[in-house]
From TrEMBL:
<feature type="domain" description="Sulfotransferase">
    <location>
        <begin position="93"/>
        <end position="296"/>
    </location>
</feature>
<keyword id="KW-0808">Transferase</keyword>
<dbReference type="InterPro" id="IPR000863">
    <property type="entry name" value="Sulfotransferase_dom"/>
</dbReference>
<dbReference type="InterPro" id="IPR027417">
    <property type="entry name" value="P-loop_NTPase"/>
</dbReference>
<keyword id="KW-0812">Transmembrane</keyword>
<dbReference type="Pfam" id="PF00685">
    <property type="entry name" value="Sulfotransfer_1"/>
</dbReference>
<feature type="transmembrane region" description="Helical">
    <location>
        <begin position="21"/>
        <end position="38"/>
    </location>
</feature>
<dbReference type="GO" id="GO:0008146">
    <property type="term" value="F:sulfotransferase activity"/>
</dbReference>
<keyword id="KW-0472">Membrane</keyword>
<dbReference type="InterPro" id="IPR052796">
    <property type="entry name" value="Nod_factor_sulfotransferase"/>
</dbReference>
<comment type="similarity">
    <text>Belongs to the sulfotransferase 1 family.</text>
</comment>
<keyword id="KW-1133">Transmembrane helix</keyword>
<protein>
    <recommendedName>
        <fullName>Sulfotransferase</fullName>
        <ecNumber>2.8.2.-</ecNumber>
    </recommendedName>
</protein>
Amino acid sequence: MAEFICLFGKIVIKQPKKSPLFLRMIVLVFAMVCGLYMCSVCLKQSSLQSSQLVPTPVDSHSSHHVITRIHYPKPQTFSRAECGHNPVRFFAILSMQRSGSGWFETLLNSHDNVSSNEEIFSVLDRRKNVSSIVKTLDRVYNLDWFTSASKNECSAAVGFKWMLNQGLLANHEEIVDYFNRRGVSAIFLFRRNPLRRMVSVLANSYDRYAKLLNGTHKSHVHSPEEADALSRYKPVINSTSLIHDLRETESLAAKALEYFNTTRHMVVFYEDLITNQTRLKQVQEFLNIPVKDLSSRQVKIHRGDLSVHIKNWEDINKTLNGTEYEKFLRADY
Ligand SMILES: *[C@@H]1O[C@H](CO)[C@@H](O)[C@H](O)[C@H]1NC(C)=O
Ligand SMILES: *[C@@H]1O[C@H](CO)[C@@H](O)[C@H](O)[C@H]1NC(C)=O
Ligand SMILES: *[C@@H]1O[C@H](CO)[C@@H](O)[C@H](O)[C@H]1NC(C)=O
Ligand SMILES: *[C@@H]1O[C@H](CO)[C@@H](O)[C@H](O)[C@H]1NC(C)=O
Ligand SMILES: *[C@@H]1O[C@H](CO)[C@@H](O)[C@H](O)[C@H]1NC(C)=O
Ligand SMILES: *[C@@H]1O[C@H](CO)[C@@H](O)[C@H](O)[C@H]1NC(C)=O
Ligand SMILES: *[C@@H]1O[C@H](CO)[C@@H](O)[C@H](O)[C@H]1NC(C)=O
Ligand SMILES: *[C@@H]1O[C@H](CO)[C@@H](O)[C@H](O)[C@H]1NC(C)=O
């Protein structure tokens, strides 16, 4: 009996002591739940940036493999849904105005899994300083940038085109650093024939004011009739500065290649894309996307012999005769 009372007493006495223990347990459980939650937030954060290193062939002709990064972006504006498990490659087309990058981009965008978001940095505000450039890049590569080219959830490669004079060379150190840090692959797109590019530049800037197509300025056309209408205008090329201007263009391209030589990159020439289907296939391999037949509705504006497209042809022909640039007089495309 005494025992029982004692036992009972014990129980009774213990009761208030058990209460703080119980509270402590609750605190412990709460702390554990908190910890787990914080961990999961951390994991989420890190998966926002998640990327992994995988070997990919750069060039189908070489057996060398370089390390490139694949990414699993978590856009803030939508869910990648069933394609959330597909990796995404980051790229940028680095080029100059009137080098065929518009056409090249429509070819890439005809691929189900490519989003190339056009000339994002043509807007001055986005390239005002390095921080606005980086902010813009982050949004593009997180798939939160919207243009008509956005494929959203099933994009396997995302990028845009960037002209060398749109803050790219001016901020090259920081941009190269960004490309290497985030695994952005560069596709250089140049023209072998800068004389033809010059014709296109002059004609396009004339049309900006003349608006030859029913009062609308067009940089790209979709029919032979439109192409003919635009190419009826023949620009006069300044023969005094011609050689100097051609050199400038070449040295700009060389400079860009030198600045970006540590990034993962490939160089594509517009003329090769036109004449050789293999090139476009190699671009797709470079981007690590399924190789498909790509198409564009764009029609080339200045076709055929260059002599019919330049008003002061005699003069230009004479100026380049016997120089290293003579070959550009005759080359197609
Ligand atoms: C960069 O430019 C943006 C405006 O485009 C401005 O708000 C920001 O303060 C600038 N940053 C620096 C570091 O100059
Ligand atoms: C490409 O897009 C299609 C849907 O448009 C999707 O089913 C497929 O998984 C994507 N492929 C890759 C490699 O992301
Ligand atoms: C201009 O507009 C007319 C009528 O809308 C159309 O028939 C014609 O093809 C257009 N011309 C060009 C060069 O686009
Ligand atoms: C042609 O280039 C020369 C040298 O740069 C320049 O002095 C001249 O003004 C230019 N002519 C025209 C018509 O722009
Ligand atoms: C990149 O170019 C610089 C300057 O010409 C040169 O010193 C460097 O070795 C090059 N790096 C690579 C990886 O080619
Ligand atoms: C097409 O390009 C590939 C790779 O760049 C090259 O090996 C091949 O010889 C080219 N074909 C022609 C017909 O130029
Ligand atoms: C260009 O000049 C060369 C002589 O230097 C001449 O033989 C050739 O016919 C000229 N080409 C054209 C298309 O006028
Ligand atoms: C082109 O250059 C050659 C020498 O390189 C010269 O004999 C010829 O007369 C030049 N033609 C013209 C049209 O200037």
